[in-house]
Amino acid sequence: MERAFRTLKGIDLLVRPIHHRTKDRVKAHIFLCTLAYYVEWHMREALTPLLFDDEELPLSRKTRDPVKPAEASSSAKKKKTTKLTRDGLPVQSFSTLLANLGTRCKNRCRMVLDSLAPTFTLLTDPTPIQERALALLGL
Hints:
Strand content: 5-15%
Radius of gyration: 21 Å
Distance between the termini: 29 Å
Number of strands: 2
Shape: flat
Strand order of the largest sheet: 1-2
């Protein structure tokens, strides 16, 4: 729970104090902050193969000593040294991956010669990293 609170107030979600005066608004603010944390947590879980996070950590939690500090798996160490995923894509931090996904564009276009021509939409082609991230998120 402490980690979740630090995430809410830290560099990940950038939730800052908002001074509400009514009970309903305070509850709504807390709900939205919790929802944002929940969405981020699920995204990190789904995007683990593209991130520096250890993919084998959930499995090793069942067998490792809970008192000793966790050791990185061999695959996590390889990811950090080579800076490549198993697919050969560059490993990302969560913030750089979000920034990368944010470069995808949906453009509404119209022919220049005819201002009455119907508009059409063009979506930029995803990069290999974007394509893999969208597949991992099921989008």
